[in-house]
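QA checklist item 7 of 12: single-chain prediction sanity check.
[x] sequence parsed
[x] length recorded as 160
[x] structure emitted
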Amino acid sequence: MSTEGAHVERNLGRDLSGAVVLFHQAVAARLGLSAGDLKTLELIATDGPFSASELARRTGLTAAGITSVVARLAAGGYVVRETDPGDRRRAIIRAADAEHPELADAFAGLGRALGGVIADYDPAEQAAIVSYLRRTIDILREQTIRLGPGSDRPTCRAGE
């Protein structure tokens, strides 16, 4: 790949990341949450339930950080904490069964719009796009864990 092509890809990745974060911030603000809270809720809803330590590892947050997120999500009725039947000392966090129409509506609109975009491509191109996105998601998840607490990289604090 040319240097120019690599530059375009880096900018494209940054632009995509920025647009995704800002979309999630807008959705989260409608619910009175932060974008991080919303993404944690989505992780719990799609891949959970989790123990707090596993949730912290998957999100890259500290134990104290995940405790705060879970408290906010529980207060809003988005998650519930239950005692782990296999270890009564441990809590399990799962998505609440409650409906949240404002959340469903935001993502339904996004899904319709993105579905319209991908429909413009032939099946082989669609398969390539889906493959690229799935691989990108896997890399982002791996990097989140790599950069999270317990990694060998020092953590920066505000003002340092």
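[x] summary fact logged: The radius of gyration is 18 Å.
[ ] second reviewer sign-off
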